[in-house]
């Protein structure tokens, strides 16, 4: 039997509106609105695409009283206090602030970088940093590193402010969906006291802006849908629709997860168009107007907004930076270090640089270092920067006499398909060589080692001979497909003796190869990894002064935009490494585990949700699925539940929110990349709204007072849960006992042993503040006596265990840190330990491209609480300022060693003043008594568990 609906007499119209007949049910208007037009008027309205009536209504369906606005202001003040409470603590880097703070510094320095996320949220954070005077010099290198001269509070205020603004959006969205004020208030309180959302919004992270713009998009779309039910194509209708499109552009410009929000709006829009198509009162022309309006505002506007963010991104990042190596050579020409025009013709005797096509790993490179195994001959690698060790001379392999190197007087002979050549490394005077020896890393039968072999005056042997095989040329240069032309011809190099092809891939050599890319000779080579091209060519003696020159084509915005999207996609898909705190989507609704953000000074910040809100929202999602399935089964048996306006209202309401939840949650099951609990936050927002919609339905038959009492109980339980876990939100003191009592689930692994036994013990702990010097002692200086001697212990940087990949004394070389290390080539000799290159900053695309980064989310995220407990040490670096790429040979090596020796403590007995200073230093710092020389050892930080 169908559910009965009690008929009610319409209320008396308010004065001045005699023709308005209020509906018995506000939602959905198209099903319950009373007709107040005659048949001809209704027909005319339908032909124009209007609903069955035209009456005054609140904009966007927001019928909010003045008392509600006052209540909402109070809730907003509470949310502001909760999210801004002690936001300056801790005064050190927390979790992914390592990445996003660093990106803000790159923006201010205009140094190009690559990140897997679009730029909007990072630009907002950068704007706050810039307005408050950030100079970009703080590097955000390690978790726990104290901020110095950095407006980190202003930067944290950006996500915090957007987190606060999410609270009223939850209220207004549910009110626009025709839920009761009590329900909307409950939802705003749930969002206010959700621990995970609070923690994420208090730091320099991107998820709070993402959730805000997701909530804003849903609010605007609900308002537009309400306008669409009343009267389409009005000024208010267009306003809500355009705002929805702009918000869609903003959400996808924060993170690509915003694509799920676009999918949610897209599904609902398709459903709207489908229902309009089935309405026979709507003309095809009117339907086409609906379609074009939505396509314009919900597709074109978001796309233009998204692209404009990247245009701003490119405008700011106009200088070369650490992200260069991820981009094509053409792209790099726009970053302030464009290449000079180079000669187009290549002949025997030409001096050239040869670049790999596919991996963008760099140039064919050699340096005066040998393989530790195999042939023990000189290394051949790919190096990502321009350097004189990339220079090769093309020789004729068919001539056996060494003096044939002089091509100044010989007729010019161009390099063609099938030309047999030798490649002579100019700096070390050795030939590109291969033989039947397994390479040191890719040790398989079909791979052969490639080395540099020979000496001055030695003509070489057949293992130095290579055959040019032209693969393709440029369509604009017909000659480039017949003979090798600079930048235009892609070719393969086949080894004459073994038949293998010169090959490179993203595999890197170990530290002895400075983690540069491996070059081999592959008998089963993939073609795309066997292609090379010549990037630069010096003037051949036989070429005229007016010889043709070429250069890279400078890409426009669209080409740069598309290339960066591809790099972001490839890099994002490559984030497959396991992380100590990563998790899979199946565990998120159950809140199985959180994320350790920060541990220091016997305090911890640990991302974990409010268990009550989290589990209640999950239960509501399951309840909707079960009830919806039950109603479908009843409909199959002939029951007419869906003719009940109350059922239709809540089915439409909950179905919309469930669609948003599903489309923001299920796609993560399809991803193989690294995932974290915070990826669930947009879906959690929908789940919270759905739980309140279920509450609205469950209490719909109760008196308002009883409904308010139930909501109050739910809110109190939620606030109690928030209070229980608040020390993990704010990094407040906590006791081991209270911490252990809060571990309700055994998989919650916050570090209870890090806390002290009693709150009183925290009174004696002073949190250190960053200073240039930790301690100063002065001896001497008496009148008529010896000169004063100042003993200073420099503050030691906090180094994450996860980032200490370079052991003490190791050579810092390319590839160690894909996004932050400053390194350069070693042209002719080893570098001094600890030498730092202040000029070259680059990234190297490795087998699994980086993040968070881009970038591979740096290993600093892997800092566990156990690693934080360890005492950290660092070795004072010897800075060597280099303005230009270093020259090869022993000269640079001697200069670097000289710098290192100059900084070292001289051997032999100390002078009187030095000995006295050393004694005082030992008395002040007994933990350093056994440290010889002038080596700085990291002082134990408060909270370190030695």
UniProtKB/TrEMBL annotation:
Entry GO CC: endoplasmic reticulum membrane
Residue span(s) of domain MIR: 343-397, 412-471, 481-537
Compartments, as annotated in UniProt: Endoplasmic reticulum membrane
Class of this enzyme: transferase
Residue ranges with Low complexity bias: 934-946
Location of region: Disordered: 1-38, 847-946
Enzyme Commission no: 2.4.1.109
Positions of transmembrane segments: 112-134, 154-174, 204-225, 259-279, 291-310, 612-633, 653-671, 677-698
Reaction equations catalysed: a di-trans,poly-cis-dolichyl beta-D-mannosyl phosphate + L-threonyl-[protein] = 3-O-(alpha-D-mannosyl)-L-threonyl-[protein] + a di-trans,poly-cis-dolichyl phosphate + H(+); a di-trans,poly-cis-dolichyl beta-D-mannosyl phosphate + L-seryl-[protein] = 3-O-(alpha-D-mannosyl)-L-seryl-[protein] + a di-trans,poly-cis-dolichyl phosphate + H(+)
Pathway where it operates: Protein modification; protein glycosylation
Membrane topology term: Multi-pass membrane protein
Compositional bias (Basic and acidic residues): 910-932
Function noted in UniProt: Transfers mannose from Dol-P-mannose to Ser or Thr residues on proteins.
Protein name: Dolichyl-phosphate-mannose--protein mannosyltransferase
């Amino acid at each position: 039997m169908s559910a009965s609906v009690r008929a009610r007499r319409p209320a008396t119209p308010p004065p001045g509106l005699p023709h308005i007949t209020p509906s018995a049910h506000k939602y959905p208007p198209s099903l319950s609105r009373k007709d107040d037009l005659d048949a001809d008027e209704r027909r005319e309205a339908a032909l124009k695409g209007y609903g069955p009536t035209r009456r005054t209504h609140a904009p966007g369906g927001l019928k909010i009283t003045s008392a509600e606005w006052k209540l909402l202001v109070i809730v907003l003040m509470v949310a502001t206090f909760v999210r801004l409470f002690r936001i300056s603590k801790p005064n050190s880097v927390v979790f992914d602030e390592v990445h996003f703070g660093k990106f803000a510094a790159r923006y201010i320095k205009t140094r190009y970088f690559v990140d897997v996320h679009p730029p909007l949220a990072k630009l907002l954070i950068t704007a706050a940093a810039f307005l408050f005077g950030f100079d970009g010099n703080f590097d955000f290198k390690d978790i726990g590193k104290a901020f110095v001269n950095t407006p980190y509070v202003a930067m944290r205020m950006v996500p915090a402010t957007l987190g606060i603004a999410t609270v009223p959006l939850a209220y207004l969205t549910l009110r626009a969906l025709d839920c009761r004020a009590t329900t909307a208030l409950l939802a705003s309180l749930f969002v206010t006291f959700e621990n995970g959302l609070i923690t994420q919004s208090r730091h320099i992270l991107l998820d709070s802006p993402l959730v805000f713009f997701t909530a804003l998009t849903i609010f605007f779309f609900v308002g537009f849908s309400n306008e669409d039910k009343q009267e389409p194509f009005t000024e208010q209708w267009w306003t809500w629709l355009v705002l929805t499109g702009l918000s869609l552009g903003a959400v996808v410009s924060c993170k690509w997860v915003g694509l799920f929000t676009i999918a949610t709006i897209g599904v609902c829009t398709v459903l709207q168009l489908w229902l309009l198509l089935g309405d026979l009162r709507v003309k095809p022309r009117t339907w086409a107007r609906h379609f074009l309006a939505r396509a314009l505002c919900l597709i074109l506007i978001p796309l233009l907004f998204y692209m404009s963010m990247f245009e701003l991104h490119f405008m700011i990042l106009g200088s070369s930076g650490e992200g260069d190596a991820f981009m094509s050579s053409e792209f790099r020409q726009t970053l302030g270090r464009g290449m000079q025009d180079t000669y187009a013709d290549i002949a025997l005797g030409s001096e050239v640089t040869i670049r790999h096509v596919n991996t963008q790993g760099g140039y064919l490179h050699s340096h005066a270092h040998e393989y530790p195994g195999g042939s023990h001959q000189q290394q051949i690698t790919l190096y990502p920067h321009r350097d004189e060790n990339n220079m090769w001379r093309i020789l004729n392999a068919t001539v056996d006499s060494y003096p044939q190197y002089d091509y100044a007087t010989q007729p010019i002979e161009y390099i063609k398909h099938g030309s047999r050549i030798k490649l002579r490394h100019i700096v070390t005077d050795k030939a590109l060589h291969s033989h039947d020896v397994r390479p040191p890393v890719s040790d398989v039968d079909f791979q052969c080692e490639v080395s540099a072999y020979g000496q001055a005056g030695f003509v070489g042997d057949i293992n130095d001979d290579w055959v040019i095989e032209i693969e393709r040329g440029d369509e604009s240069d017909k000659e480039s497909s017949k003979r090798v032309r600079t930048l235009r011809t892609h070719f393969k190099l086949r080894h004459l003796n073994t038949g293998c092809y010169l090959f490179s891939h993203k595999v890197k050599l170990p530290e002895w190869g400075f983690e540069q890319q491996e070059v081999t000779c592959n008998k089963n080579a993939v073609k795309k990894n066997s292609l090379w091209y010549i990037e630069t060519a010096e003037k051949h003696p036989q070429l005229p002064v007016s010889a043709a020159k070429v250069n890279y084509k400078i890409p426009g915005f669209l080409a740069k935009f598309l290339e960066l999207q591809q790099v972001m996609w490839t890099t994002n898909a490559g984030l497959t490494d396991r992380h100590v705190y990563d998790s899979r989507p199946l565990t998120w609704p159950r809140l199985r585990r959180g994320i350790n953000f920060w541990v220091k000074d016997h305090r911890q910040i640990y991302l974990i949700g409010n268990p009550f809100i989290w589990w209640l929202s999950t239960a509501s999602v399951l309840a909707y699925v079960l009830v919806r399935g039950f109603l479908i089964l009843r409909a199959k048996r002939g029951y007419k539940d869906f003719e009940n306006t109350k059922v239709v209202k809540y089915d439409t309401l909950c179905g919309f929110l469930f669609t948003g939840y599903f489309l923001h949650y299920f796609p993560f099951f399809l991803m193989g990349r690294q995932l974290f609990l915070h990826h669930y936050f947009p879906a959690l927002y929908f789940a919270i709204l759905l739980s309140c919609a279920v509450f609205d339905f469950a209490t719909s038959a109760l008196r308002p007072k009883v409904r308010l009492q139930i909501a109050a109980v739910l809110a109190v339980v939620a606030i109690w849960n928030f209070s229980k876990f608040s020390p993990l939100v704010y990094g407040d003191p906590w006791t081991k006992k209270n911490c252990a009592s809060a571990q309700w689930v055994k998989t919650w692994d916050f570090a209870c042993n890090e806390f002290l036994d009693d709150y009183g013990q925290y009174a004696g702990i002073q949190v250190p503040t960053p200073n240039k010097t930790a301690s100063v002692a002065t001896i001497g200086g008496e009148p008529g006596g010896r000169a004063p001697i100042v003993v200073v212990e420099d503050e030691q940087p906090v180094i994450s265990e996860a980032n200490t990949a370079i052991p003490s004394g190791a050579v810092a070389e390319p590839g160690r840190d894909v996004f932050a290390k400053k390194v350069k080539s070693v042209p002719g000799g080893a570098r001094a330990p600890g030498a730092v290159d202040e000029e070259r900053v680059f990234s190297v695309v490795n087998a699994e491209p980086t993040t968070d980064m881009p970038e591979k989310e740096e290993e600093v995220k892997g800092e566990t609480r156990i690693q934080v407990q360890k005492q950290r040490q660092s070795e004072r670096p010897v800075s060597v300022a280099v303005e230009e790429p270093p020259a090869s040979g022993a000269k640079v090596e001697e200069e670097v060693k000289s710098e290192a020796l100059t900084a070292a403590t001289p051997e032999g007995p100390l002078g009187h003043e030095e000995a006295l200073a050393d004694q005082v230093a030992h008395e002040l710092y007994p933990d350093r008594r056994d440290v010889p020389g002038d080596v700085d050892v990291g002082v134990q930080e408060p909270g370190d568990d030695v």
